[in-house]
Design goal:
The complex is a heterotrimer of chains A (334), B (656) and C (333). Chain A has 334 residues and is mostly helical. Chain A has 15 helices and no strands. Chain A has helices spanning 2-28, 31-43, 52-66, 72-84, 99-134, 139-153, 156-170, 175-180, 193-227, 230-237, 242-267, 269-272, 274-279, 285-294, 299-327. The longest helix of chain A has 36 residues, at 99-134. The radius of gyration of chain A is 25 Å and the shape is globular. Chain B is α+β, with helices and mostly antiparallel strands. Chain B contains 19 helices and 21 strands. Chain B has a six-stranded mixed sheet. A four-stranded mixed sheet of chain B has the order 1-10-9-8, covered by helices on one side. A four-stranded antiparallel sheet of chain B has the order 4-5-7-6, with helices on one face. In chain B, strand 8 (295-301) and strand 9 (305-310) form a beta hairpin. Mean pLDDT of chain B is 84; it is low at 1-53 and 70-80. Chain C is built from eleven helices and no strands. Chain C is globular, with a radius of gyration of 22 Å. The model of chain C is unreliable at 1-19 and 57-77 (pLDDT under 50). Classes of the chains: A mainly alpha (334), B alpha+beta (656), C mainly alpha (333). Chains in contact: A-B, A-C, B-C. At the B-C interface, helix 1, helix 2, helix 9, helix 12 and helix 15 of B face helix 1, helix 2, helix 3, helix 9 and helix 10 of C.
Chain lengths: 334, 656, 333
């Protein structure tokens, strides 16, 4: 086991190295365009950049600000060296804060939203998945499955747009508008827990419905498989109550694979909610990285977010795998 | 061959399923075909009508409100008019609204940014020598002192020397953070040295950042500046410059302290010379926003929020005892922009004022339901236009340019982009009604007239000109990526203006391009880059700004590369003309010239095609007093006069 | 584009008593009875394809779609009443904005006075184009890598797996936005639609690779593969002749569910960064366009939302049913 964990950790670092290299390379494929794009504002300034020297100055300024001075190998070496020291560099736009501080500031709302969504998803999916499996092929099962499929089909951002429409257009002054409508300015959990909950409520619920549908379908098929196992039949034969059989014997075992999905969801907290963050005005990390790719190309920020996200993802996966082995004695790692 | 056998087997095994699929496909397709019946009498066509039918009632109502361009301004803050001071028990609170303020597309340096919302933020933080006291007639008479004590003493006829006295005891912002970052600057008094520094850096062509200085062409008219004493400044201009007084009150004329500029070596050991400090050099640009204005920069979270708080030590213009700014601060958020969100937030009083984003009808409807809210309609000086590279084929041919000008369907732009609430734009937009060509005259000109006969004649002439030019292909058109209505209108422009009105056969290619890249393309000699652009321009105040940088040979914004001696003469003349009435007439003449009404074959005619400018509208709860609203960016300092009337009924229920 | 029109297709399928096609119909009937939801999904998909068949060859001015999207000429318009960019005006000469549904405009008109139905239909073609190309890229790359790494195993497998792990660690939407913004193949130009489709496919490579690799790993140990190896069949021959047929079922399932995922991703991408994708008619564009005027004129947004949801639903349902029929092994995955 110990050996397995060590090996996995080493492999994770290899993965992270590959991620860092890929994002570094991707950003530099066409960095000339990015440089001249950034220098574009300079060209159109009042000076009008009428000489070659001035154009070169403009580009040099842009290159310096983006951290693109020096040859690609030198940049790569510096980048990896800084990364090894956990230094993600400084933002090239805005207040030019250290990237790590900006990520810390933005990660909070995203993580909160992601966890709330998983919570909502589990609260919805567990009972429904169990009922649907126990009452297999009954009308209740069909209804629940149809609803879950519906939520799989309706993309969460479509749902959010429609909810915004309904709440702000037709729900004025009602509970619906208060809780599902957009909120004014963001207040963090520590500032004002109640306002914060109000802001998070709708995106957590909407996002949770979508992921809940996935978990529910998965749980249902797991339950069906487990319910056919011999030990469950033995439990029935012993004359145990239905509740005990289903929950104590079946659900416990069916839940283990659900962990994998929760792991994947944990890893996708960042990118999964870009649009919800945008629509519900949550200053999360998804929005941060999109702004930094699209509005003003900010290489250090993109690199930083991608690496941090990848790091969280691979280590969460490792923990899930370890937990898996711990929960399910049949699995042995070597 | 064992290989192919496996494939055979695979397909045989699954053949029934394949047949199943093809069967359903036939059935599905057939039914779908049968479903399509009937045709339409509503044929696609062009716009141009000027009737009243077809406009929604809400829009009609909106357009019937007087806007700020009328002789009697609605309720703009006009420094010449008395404003209501706040009673002492009704002070404090944070004004909240949704706007573009937290978006920064370029830089933080007040002299380098060309992004309107950014220098609007900064105008509340930094003071200027002078400012406009009225938006209505942006002329000399309406420029009032900000830092300066009084109007400048002008020496010479025409004047070339300006002696300016500034107020005493103006202090830079002073907070704990500023004190730790800039111990010498916090609370320091502003002197003439700061003013000289602020203008000097913008005319220093040796700085590596020189091209970044947005208004450097204005300050290059300065010959020398002399410090008479700490509070007296003497400026000598290079010859007579009629708009010079305006330059001192213009939107980027902010006075900044020397300390906030990063002067450490940057490129080739030259000083970096920007408030946007090099990454890694503490403090960051946001922490360098230290001025003498009514508000103190607190935080700007990109795309999310801009927050400024009251400067208790503000010098308060002519009367410090009034205790302005009345508010504790203001907060602008800017996310998830859509009308439904804005309406919902406004009705719950989460925001105090609201503008419309897409369609004014919700504002009008809201006003109907809540008659107490205050409505304000204000045109904006920014406008949509196309720039043509006159040295490129086919735009070197005046016939093509004029054809594009005549074929442009401006009322369509107003309807589709502006939901009918915008204004058709001439070379100077309607918001600056003082300088703009009178509307009666403009709307009767070819390309602008909308009566059926006139419009038909224009379209016919456009086609004839285009055919006479040999029906050349239109090179790739670059549409700006922000604001997004430009990109959305692009296919309609191609389809109606070019294809239908002009009869262009080969479909012109177009793409959506970030505005920084457009700026780069405009500078290049390459005709494939930005040969024709379609975008939004900030808009300007004085006549000189609207024309001189664009049309003067070698001017900084002359991306057309036009060199027209007749136009140059006109432009030089308006710079020398100090008589307002004569200058106004010169301004009209220049506009007619640019529209090709003086000489349609002139090289300077129709190199820019102007379409439309925003006609904004906003509402506020009645508890918001002395609300501001200005047709051009960069007037956030007026927020110093805003206060919340806590005794007003509407104040009840306002979210904290 | 709504269920009312879609359901009778099935009814027609049962009712039509053509002797020659009796076998087919019986199969359809059996399938529909066993998997009613799957059949419903197929109806939606076929309806989508039927809508796209009659598109004009290229949208005027929009460099978006090639004339021959999948190598064959498209037929005469038949689901198309107007062009996607045709602008309508009222009698008074105003742009016919936000007209309510009528006989002329089945779903009404949008802000620019264009027929919403025409735009929905055009958007369907774009969605399918992107979906199919993305899945072609994803399955070819994904299954290729999956077969090779699964078959050869050892260090080759480890390297490929780490690369896949690395790719999968990129948040997909972020990776997509990055690729279309940078547009690595066209310096300074806006990404083309094909480029966007390839990006969408590229992001899906790891999941396809994982599924194929799993199947290959289990197949590799089968006796008949062993036997082939013993009689001296080359690696290429074993992969092509013995292993690939075994993973075909999984690939077909992945393909059909994948298109739904890609359509969703394309819509999300056009909603969040519309300026980075080529102009044209896209459901995501329609939704983002109508988002800013949601309060006053929600209908263009509602229709495009319905189109996106229905298409994604259709491909999901069909994919699920196919999976149950073709490859029960994938069920647990």
């Amino acid at each position: 086991m110990q050996q397995y964990i060590i090996r996995r950790i080493l492999l994770n670092f290899l993965v992270l190295f590959l991620v860092a290299t890929m994002v570094f390379a991707a950003l530099r494929v066409d960095s000339d365009t990015v440089v001249s794009r950034r220098a574009g504002i300079c060209f159109s300034g009042g000076g009008g950049a009428d000489s070659e020297q001035q154009i070169e100055d403009c580009k040099a300024i842009a290159r310096t600000e983006l951290g693109l001075n020096g040859s690609i190998p030198t940049q790569y070496k510096d980048f990896l060296f800084d990364l090894a020291q956990l230094d993600l560099g400084y933002s090239s736009v805005g207040n030019k804060d250290p990237i790590i501080d900006e990520i810390k500031e933005r990660a909070g709302p995203s993580i909160e939203l992601g966890l709330l969504q998983i919570f909502v998803a589990l609260v919805i999916a567990l009972p429904i998945g169990v009922i649907s499996a126990v009452k297999q092929d009954s009308p209740v099962d069909y209804l629940l499955r149809f609803i879950s499929i519906l939520f799989l089909g309706v993309p969460v951002f479509v749902l959010a747009v429609m909810v915004i429409l309904l709440s702000s257009r037709y729900g004025e002054g009602t509970f619906f508008a208060d809780w599902f409508g957009p909120q004014g300015s963001y207040s963090s959990l520590s500032d004002n827990p109640f306002d914060n909950l109000k802001i998070m409520f709708a995106p957590a619920l909407l996002g949770g419905l979508g992921t809940g549908a996935i978990i529910m379908r998965f749980l249902r098929s797991q339950m069906l498989e487990v319910l056919r196992q011999d030990y469950v039949r033995t439990a029935w034969a012993k004359g145990l109550k239905e509740r005990v059989v289903v929950i104590r014997h079946a659900l416990k075992n069916a839940l283990i694979p659900v962990l994998t999905i929760v792991g994947i969801l944990l890893g996708s907290i960042v990118s999964g909610n870009v649009i919800l963050e945008f629509i519900y005005r949550i200053p999360g990390i998804g929005q941060y990285v999109v702004f930094n790719i699209v509005q003003t190309p900010n290489f250090p920020a993109v690199q930083g977010v991608v690496i941090v996200v990848a790091m969280v993802l691979v280590f969460v996966n490792l923990i899930i795998d370890i937990a898996y082995g711990w929960l399910d004695p049949r699995i042995r790692y070597s | 061959m064992s290989d192919s056998k496996y494939w055979d087997k695979f397909w045989k095994q699954r053949v029934s399923r394949r047949r199943l699929m093809s069967g359903t496909l036939t059935v599905g397709g057939g039914l779908a075909a049968a479903g399509v019946v009937g045709c339409s009498s509503d044929e696609p066509g062009g716009t141009g009508g000027n009737g009243d039918s077809g406009q929604s009632a809400a829009l009609q109502k909106f357009l019937n409100y007087p806007d700020g361009t009328d002789a009697e301004p609605l309720d703009f803050v006009d420094a010449r008019r008395p404003f209501t001071p706040a009673p002492t028990d009704s002070r404090g609170g944070t004004l909240t609204y949704i706007g573009f303020d937290p978006v920064v597309l370029d830089r933080y340096d007040p002299h380098q940014t060309q992004f309107g919302p950014m220098y609007s933020n900064q105008s509340a933080i930094f003071s200027k020598l002078y400012m406009y006291g009225s938006h209505d007639q942006p002329t000399w008479e309406n420029i009032i002192p900000d830092i300066a004590e009084s109007a400048p003493e002008m020496i010479g006829d025409p004047p070339t020397e300006y002696v300016i006295k500034i107020r005493r005891g103006i202090k830079f912002h002073d907070t704990d953070k500023i004190r730790s970052n800039f111990p010498d600057l916090a609370g320091r008094e502003l002197t003439v040295d700061d003013i000289i520094f602020s203008f000097d850096r913008q005319r220093n062509a040796d700085s590596p950042q020189w091209p970044y200085y947005y208004r450097s062409s204005q300050y290059s008219t300065i010959d020398r500046m002399e410090k008479v004493d700490d509070y007296t400044l003497r400026i000598t201009t290079l010859g007579p410059v009629a708009p010079f007084f305006h330059f001192l009150a213009d939107t980027n004329a902010m006075i900044i302290p020397r300390e906030i500029v990063d002067m450490e070596p940057g490129l080739d050991e030259r000083p970096w010379d920007s408030v946007d400090a090099l990454a890694g050099r503490e403090p960051g640009p946001g922490d360098r926003m230290i001025g003498t204005g009514p508000f103190i920069w607190t935080d700007l979270k990109f795309g999310i929020e801009f927050h400024a708080v009251k400067n208790p030590e503000w010098f308060g213009w002519e009367d410090k005892s009034l205790g302005r700014p009345y508010l504790d601060g203001y907060r602008a958020t800017g996310q998830g922009l859509n009308d439904a969100t804005v309406e919902s937030l406004f009705s719950r009083k989460e925001i105090d004022t609201a503008g419309f984003i897409d369609n004014p009808s919700w504002i009008v409807n809201f006003k109907d339901q809540h008659p107490e809210v205050e409505f304000q309609r204000a045109a904006t000086s920014g406008w949509l236009n196309s720039r043509l590279k006159v040295f490129c084929k086919p735009f070197d041919d005046w016939r093509v340019r004029r054809a594009l000008h005549l074929a442009a369907d401006r009322s369509q732009v107003v309807q589709i982009v502006g939901s009918g609430a915008w204004n058709v734009a001439g070379p100077i937009t309607k918001a600056i009604s003082y300088w703009a060509l009178p509307e009666d005259e403009l709307m009767a000109l070819p390309g602008y007239r909308t009566d059926k006969a006139g419009r038909d004649a224009d379209l016919q002439e456009a086609r004839q000109l285009y055919e006479a030019a040999g029906k050349p292909d239109i090179p790739q058109i670059w549409f700006a990526d922000v604001p997004d209505y430009i990109r959305r209108y692009a296919p309609t422009y191609i389809e109606t203006t070019l294809k239908k009105n002009l009869g262009v056969e080969e479909a012109p290619k177009f793409q959506t391009v970030p505005y920084q890249r457009i700026a780069e393309g405009l500078l290049k000699d390459d005709c494939d880059l930005a040969g024709m652009t379609w975008g939004f321009d900030n808009g300007w105040i004085d006549l000189d700004d609207w024309f001189y940088p664009y049309y003067k040979t070698g001017g900084p914004k002359n991306s057309f590369r036009v060199s027209d001696p007749a136009l140059d003469t006109l432009l030089d003349n308006q710079r020398k003309e100090f008589d307002p009435e004569a200058r106004l007439q010169l301004g009209y003449e220049i506009q007619r010239y640019a529209l090709g009404e003086t000489n349609k074959e002139a090289p300077g005619a129709n190199c820019r095609i102007d379409y439309a400018s925003p006609g904004g509208g906003s509402i506020a709860w009645p508890y918001v007093k002395n609300r501001t609203g200005w047709p051009w960016f960069g007037n956030n300092y007026w927020t110093a006069q805003v206060w919340f009337d806590q005794s007003d009924d509407s104040y009840q229920g306002r979210a904290s | 584009m709504d269920d009312v029109q879609a359901i009778p297709v099935e009814a027609a399928a049962h009712a039509e008593p053509t002797g020659k096609r009796g076998g087919v119909l019986r199969a359809v009937w059996k399938f529909s009875k066993a998997k009613p939801l799957g059949a419903f999904g197929f109806v939606i998909i076929f309806f989508l394809f039927a809508m796209t068949l009659g598109m004009p060859k290229a949208e005027f001015g929009a460099p978006a779609l090639p004339d021959r999207p999948f190598g064959f000429e498209l037929g005469e318009p038949f689901m198309q009443r107007y062009g996607a960019e045709d602008l309508f005006v009222t009698e008074g000469g105003f742009v016919a904005q936000y007209e309510s549904p009528s006989a002329e405009h089945w779903l009404g008109t949008d802000k620019s006075g264009r027929d919403i139905w025409a735009r929905i239909v055009n958007g369907a073609r774009r969605s399918l184009f992107v979906g199919i190309w993305a899945l072609i890229v994803a399955t070819i790359l994904g299954s290729g890598i999956g077969v090779i790494s699964g078959y050869f195993g050892s260090w080759l497998d480890i390297i490929f797996q780490r690369f896949m792990d690395a790719l999968q660690s990129f948040p997909p939407l972020i990776a997509l936005i990055l690729i279309v913004t940078i547009n690595p193949l066209g310096s300074g130009e806006q990404a083309s639609l094909l480029m966007a489709a390839c990006a969408l496919g590229f992001v899906g490579v790891p999941s396809v690779q994982r599924i194929t690799r799993g199947v290959v790993l289990s197949t590799r140990e089968q006796q008949y593969v062993e036997a082939a190896r013993v009689i001296g069949a080359s690696d290429v021959r074993i992969m092509w002749g013995y292993i690939l047929p075994n993973i075909m079922a999984s690939i077909i399932v992945v393909f059909s569910t994948g298109i739904g995922v890609v359509i969703l991703a394309e819509a999300a991408l056009s909603f969040i960064v519309p300026d980075k994708l080529p102009t044209g008619t896209s459901w995501g564009f329609m939704l983002s366009e109508s988002y800013s005027s949601l309060g006053d004129a929600p209908w263009p947004g509602v229709w495009s939302a319905a189109a996106i949801s229905l298409a994604v639903l259709g491909f999901n349902l069909a994919g699920d049913a196919l999976r149950d029929v073709l490859d029960p092994r994938l069920r647990a995955r």
